[in-house]
Specification:
single chain, 264 residues, alpha/beta, Rossmann fold, 12 helices, binds adenosine-5'-triphosphate, binds magnesium ion
Length: 264
């Protein structure tokens, strides 16, 4: 039997459009820059867009095929082009046929035997695929923008995670500065959780998306990218000042990271 080398983590929100997919992909690219073997699974089965955000393939299989038993897991894994892998969704209506959501847990278990971080990009709200993703993942991140409707949605998803005993690592405050007036401190008080990162609203984000480019790679020095890279580093307990010294000593750093992942 293969043993686990990684952890599964889902990005969630009650309200749609708060940046879960944007963050999942850019965090994956940031983790890959730290040599963390990462995969993003598109669990947004109704409107999958992980593949679309990366330029749309070609992808010859999908999470839908694996969930429906139409294909092997290994056939649905694709290179993102940014040193991490993805399992894209299939946008066609017919892709939903014969899907068995109960297979999700088994898929994620298998992936944690091959990847250090398995990031599950969920749809908004509290559909079955969201609750099953929360149940199947070891931990969750709540993504919110600084507006009340998004925060209320986040609280709802957080309470479902609690009921399912999914560890909540914290809240990511995305689109900060885009007119939203709710402060980081208030968000922390409301969720009783740390805001593990604040990602600025950046008008240029969508122009990179149109090209299928990942913002953190194409625009590495913008404050939006820097905060996402910091979230990724914090997630795995990476401390830049330790690197130079440790890298020369076999793989002590990678062992530390794996230990941190297990403690997530
Ligand atoms: N920090 C940001 N600055 C500017 N635009 C952003 C930022 N984060 C995300 N966006 C843009 O906001 C839109 C919604 O983002 P995204 O699709 O990632 O949200 P989502 O939560 O995954 O949506 P859904 O709930 O529909 O799955 C996208 O066009 C994305 O490029
Ligand atoms: Mg999305």
């Amino acid at each position: 039997m293969n043993s686990k080398i990684g952890t599964s983590l889902c990005t969630t929100s009650g309200k749609g459009g708060v940046g879960k997919t944007f963050l999942s992909l850019n965090l994956a690219a940031s983790l890959a820059m730290l040599d963390i073997k990462t995969i993003v699974v598109d669990a947004n089965l109704d409107c999958p867009d992980v593949g679309i955000c990366l330029g749309n393939g070609p992808y010859y299989s999908s999470i839908h095929n694996v969930l429906a038993g139409r294909d092997e897991l290994s056939n649905a894994v694709f290179d993102s082009g940014y040193d991490f892998d993805i399992i894209p969704g299939d946008i066609s209506f017919s892709a939903m046929k014969d899907i068995d959501l109960e297979n999700l847990k088994d898929i994620l278990t298998k992936l944690t035997q091959e990847y250090n971080v398995v990031l599950v990009d969920t749809p908004p709200g509290i559909s079955d695929v969201v609750t099953l993703s929360l149940d199947a993942c070891e931990s969750m991140l709540v993504v919110t923008s600084p507006v009340i409707s998004s925060i209320i949605g986040g609280l709802k998803i957080r309470s479902i995670g609690k009921r399912l005993n999914t560890k909540c690592i914290g809240v990511v405050l995305n689109m900060a500065g885009d007119g939203g007036i709710i402060s980081r401190e208030n968000i922390e008080k409301t969720f009783e959780l740390p805001v593990i990162g604040e990602v600025e609203y950046n008008m240029e984000v969508n122009s990179y998306l149109t090209e299928g480019d990942l913002f953190v790679v194409s625009n590495p020095s913008s404050s939006t990218s820097i905060s996402m890279k910091k979230i990724a580093a914090d997630l795995i307990g990476y401390k830049p000042e330790e690197t130079e010294e440790v890298e020369s000593k076999d793989n002590t750093q990678i062992k530390k990271i794996i230990k941190a992942l297990r403690n997530l």
